[in-house]
Amino acid sequence: MINNNFFINSPLEQFEVTPFIKFNAPILGDFNLSLTNLGLYALITVFLVLGLHIVANNSHSLIPSKWSIALESAYASIHAMVRDQIGPNNEIYTPFIYSLFFFVVIANLNGNIPYGFTVTTSIMVAIGLSVMIFLGVTVLGLSIHGVHFFAYFIPSGTPLGLVPLLVLIELISYLARAVSLGVRLFANMVAGHTLLKILSTFLAQLFTASILVAVVTLIPFAVFVALIGLEIAVSLIQAYVFCVLTCSYIKDAIELH
Amino acid sequence: MPQLQAFYFVNQITFALVALFTITYVMSVYVLPYFVQLFVTRVYITKL
Amino acid sequence: MFGLRAWPTPIVKPLWPFMIGSALTFAGVWKLQNVALQSEEARNDPKNPFAKTAKSGGH
User: Fold this and answer.
1) Which chains have 3 or more CB–CB distances shorter than 8 Å to chain C?
2) Which end of chain C is more exposed for a tag (fewer CB within 10 A), N or C?
3) Which domain holds residue B36?
4) Global pTM value
């Protein structure tokens, strides 16, 4: 018989932010300083990113070791991406894009470990990051070009009658960038983890039913293992897409296409 | 949907932004110039 | 520290728009949290960490 010792209420429960150490002094209004599971995993991400770069350091030797080949090629790829997207005289954004890439990739991969919490599945982190990048890019464009920044919304060569409609459409598509960048990351992570949770719940019940059912369940389990591989690939690809689009938005702000 | 009814919005965004800017600071001051020095040294040794 | 020296990389010079953006995002999230906490269902939620302080302030 199926013996459920624990209650699973919903596959979305894995995304709840629960505090470990509550710290509820009413300072500055509703400022809540408690250490939550998201905070713990953010600290784990910082520790892993910085630890990876310290351990794979190779102590200034010119011949790379196995670890430092991976890191050097990651640095070269991101540097090439920044140089191609933003332009060779704007390479100063490389540390920011590099840190953003490693933060998102290690945060996503932390969630692929069983029972790990993905920091980017929370709305505030994913959409907050993209709103921060959107506002930063707008401030950057306004500071470089001043009022001429609004010429971005009129593509060159439009007939004069179409300009009001086109400005409205361009403005809406520009504002949608703030949300779409974050929602792309958020939706991919939440959908993947919810699917894995639902399938693993079913497979766990099937595996513990009887020996014959357990042997037959190996076939859906192979599909499940393939889905985990897909999740790992999605984690890497979503981090890469996030950074490529950030570079593209910075280029649009600096050079007004 | 638990992400929407959380009461820890400020907590979440604080941890995320502090983590991102800590990584950016440590990378740009300590780690990435090490890579630049390594690549430049390799160019100097092979090309000059 | 850990075999790496500190280089004088400019941090504020490239990143000041994103610092302003993160300050604006933080302010927006604070206002959103305050609005969300005044709503009706947030008061009755057992997981609400601010319920105790609000009740003790009311009594």
Assistant:
1) A, B
2) C
3) 7-46
4) 0.90
